[in-house]
């Protein structure tokens, strides 16, 4: 979140060489991730928590673990990589009771506007594990040609989307929404970069005007 005096801003702006300058962003991430780092603090999670996977969904009334502690370099100990001018941001979806995603799990039938690198990623999974295709995919890219040139490589942790076994959300005790850490590996410094991240499922619509299915922010690293 931006500083409280400008809470509606979508700008992430800091100096990578000044730890006091980016301390706000690191502290905000730490607050956001508190329940994920110490899941026992969430009512019921200690008893309900399960290690889930695509072939091991949670039993009825149970919830899946979201273990963020090993998502290097996007960790507390590494200050979420802000000190290296290659920051991590975290994405999650709003919770909608009972909603079931309709996956883009057919590599021959992907939407025309889906980024090419995401299409290639989905195709690379086809032969390994078809269950992994049951994912709400995530893409982040520069909004305009100049932004696309300046944004640099992007990594997604622990995977490029939200696993389908977290859905539907049924208000089970201790439920934590799945997260995706987006690591901007080498963004160009000294210039404003407009970023748009989208979630991809057949029943997720995209609208910049209504802020549906996507999030926009600006990244500026001095």
Attribute tags:
5-stranded mixed beta sheet, alpha+beta, 17% helix, globular, 3-stranded antiparallel beta sheet, 222 residues
Provide an overview of this structure.
The two termini are 19 Å apart. This protein is globular. Helices cover 17% and strands 22% of the residues. With 222 residues, it is of the alpha+beta class. The protein has helices spanning 19-32, 34-37, 45-48, 116-125, 145-150; strands at residues 11-14, 49-50, 63-64, 88-91, 135-142, 154-157, 161-163, 180-184, 193-200, 214-221. Strands 1-10-9-5-7 form a five-stranded mixed sheet. It has a three-stranded antiparallel sheet with strand order 4-8-6, with no helix packed on it. Strands 2-3 form a two-stranded parallel sheet. The mean pLDDT is 91. Belongs to the X(+)/potassium ATPases subunit beta family. GO terms for molecular function: ATPase activator activity.
Give the secondary structure arrangement, pairings included.
Elements: E1 11-14, H1 19-32, H2 34-37, H3 45-48, E2 49-50, E3 63-64, E4 88-91, H4 116-125, E5 135-142, H5 145-150, E6 154-157, E7 161-163, E8 180-184, E9 193-200, E10 214-221
GO molecular function, one term: ATPase activator activity
Subcellular location: Membrane
Keywords: Membrane, Signal-anchor, Transmembrane, Transmembrane helix
Order of helices and strands: EHHHEEEHEHEEEEE
Rg result: 18 Å
What separation lies between the terminal Cα atoms? 19 Å
Q: Assembly type of the shown chains?
A: single chain
DSSP helix count? 5
Largest sheet: 5 strands, mixed
Number of strands: 10
Which class best fits the helix and strand makeup? alpha+beta
Mean pLDDT: 91
Weakly predicted, low-confidence segments: none
* Helix coverage percent: 10-25%
